[in-house]
Amino acid sequence: MKTDIEIAQAAIPQPIQQIADALGLPAERVEPYGRYAAKILPSSTAEPRKGKLILVTAINPTPAGEGKTTVSVGLADGMRKIGKKAVLALREPSLGPVFGVKGGAAGGGYAQVIPMEDINLHFTGDLHAITTANNLLAAMTDNHLQQGNALNIDPRRVTIRRCLDMNDRQLRFAVTGMGGKANGVPREEGFDITAASEVMATLCLASDIADLKARLGCIVAGYTYSGEPVTAAQLGADGAMCALLYKAIHPNLVQTLEGTPALIHGGPFANIAHGCNSVIATKTALSLGDYCVTEAGFGADLGAEKFLDIKCRMAGLVPNAVVLVATVRALKYHGGVPKAALSGENLTALKAGLANLGRHIENLQSVYGLNAVVAINRFSADTAAELQLIRAYCKEQSVPAALCEGWEKGGAGATELAALVAETCDKPSAFRFSYEDALPLEEKIRAVATKIYHAAKVSFAPAALSELRRLDGSGNYPVCIAKTQYSFSDNPQLIGAPEGFTLSIRGARLSAGAGFVVAYAGDIITMPGLPPRPAAEGIDVDAAGNITGLF
């Protein structure tokens, strides 16, 4: 059986200008990055939305993921197979997961975006630009301390952390500025992974370059001794940061194996940030196609909640349909089967795990008022009896479901799903947020915890509660709860559809540039570490430049 990268390398992609021409993009809006990728430059006139928005999300995943990107790619290809003009809008992979657990992150099998190697490794340099812009602000903050500290910044309350697009637990905590007066002001700090940085979230929520610059200027780098915030604009960093991001804000155009246009742009983590591709890319896709297929990271309790309560709120978007990806293996995992035994048939465990799927269906329909379709992403070890059990459960829940075999068959394996989704897009819905703007931050967190996670109550650490109440007076910010992706709760071991637990909020931080407040639940960390056997061990390149091992 061919690997993902072997399938991708065997493909013959179309020149990117042909993909752009099919979208009706004029040459002046297409800036090529090699033969098979390009930046889409903004239009000089307003671009009306003409497409319908399809959000792809999932049940709570196993560590390897449940193929949400693969389903998204297969669905877009499947839409084209049934005569619909679809455009993909996906996130860019972070090098951390690429070299860590999951390997390549551009889809899989015959449902991939290409050039797969470029997309996974550096691509057009967006993540490097974001890293550099973030670290410029950090450097200018420390330089301000060194050069007399006219703004009276408290070195103990510097909040901007340096970032790196890599899993590196060694950098979670550090002491910098050592070696004497000439080498800076000594202080404790640490690194975040780039995908968890505020600059990443800010770029992905900006509407244009002017909005991006304004947002960057609002980023809080630290606080004075009297507790007043010090922003990037006050440090004079916003202009240079925006200059570094001037190219990065433009969406990247590539294609699927079957030539479906794909806009891949931005990559915030959903367990820490808001987990969606950029507003600009989504709106561009909606202006270019009849359907925009986009995804939100991890399970619907994280990615979909943040897509709906943060991105849709800020950008004025409303999904016409939500695709909920479910897999036999993840449902068995939520039914109590150990990860090592997920390949064997186990109808009892599968039936028990269906509660996780049911909870996500309930949230999408009852809390948000949206129409959902379940995509059963088929894996080779799945049995007919297991697949039928999921279909029967969805029928009981009155939710349409379709088998997705995009990994094996490409768009042809997703036509049943595509037809169901297209039909669902035409149905009326009653979209609403899970909380109102005017609520205090503490109550917004309680709303998500009780309505989406089904927690019995929320416990706030004194420092977190104090910070939330202090921030209440600075604007009607939505909340971005950072928690584990493996459970509805903040405990990754609490699988299935738990109820009656207490969600623990240990800290809170304003992301003023992104426009939300992050609430940290449980032991979530912003700099992942590599596993015992990193995927990087299997990645290589030969003398001819052929890359191997990217999943």
Please provide a written account of the structure.
The protein is α/β, with parallel strands linked by helices and 551 residues long. The strands form six sheets. Strands 1, 2, 3, 4, 5, 6, 14, 15, 16, 17, 18 and 19 form a twelve-stranded mixed sheet that branches. Helix 3 packs across helix 16 and helix 6 (126-146) packs antiparallel against helix 9. The longest helix is centred in the N-terminal third of the chain and has 21 residues, at 126-146. The model has no long low-confidence stretch (mean pLDDT 95).
> Which radius of gyration do the C-alpha atoms yield?
23 Å
Specify the structural class.
Answer: alpha/beta
Largest sheet: 12 strands, mixed
- Low-confidence parts, pLDDT < 50 over ≥5 residues? none
Mean pLDDT across the residues is 95
Q: Give the N-terminus to C-terminus distance in angstroms.
A: 13 Å
Global geometry:
globular
Number of helices: 18
Beta fraction of the residues? Answer: 15-25%
How many strand segments?
25
Share of residues in helices: 25-40%
Short description:
It contains 18 helices and 25 strands.
Task: Show the helix and strand layout.
Elements: H1 4-10, H2 16-23, E1 30-32, E2 38-40, E3 52-58, H3 68-81, E4 86-90, H4 95-99, E5 107-108, E6 111-114, H5 116-120, H6 126-146, E7 153-158, E8 162-164, E9 174-176, E10 187-189, E11 191-193, H7 198-205, H8 209-218, E12 220-224, E13 229-231, H9 238-244, E14 252-256, E15 261-264, H10 279-288, E16 291-295, H11 300-315, E17 321-326, H12 328-334, H13 347-367, E18 372-377, H14 384-396, E19 401-404, H15 406-409, H16 415-425, H17 441-452, E20 457-460, H18 462-471, E21 479-482, E22 502-511, E23 516-521, E24 540-541, E25 547-548
Parallel strand pairs: 3-16, 3-17, 4-15, 4-16, 8-11, 17-18, 18-19, 20-22, 21-23
Antiparallel strand pairs: 1-2, 2-14, 5-6, 6-14, 7-12, 9-10, 12-13, 14-15, 22-23, 24-25
Helix pairs in contact: 3-16, 6-7, 6-9, 8-9, 12-13, 13-14
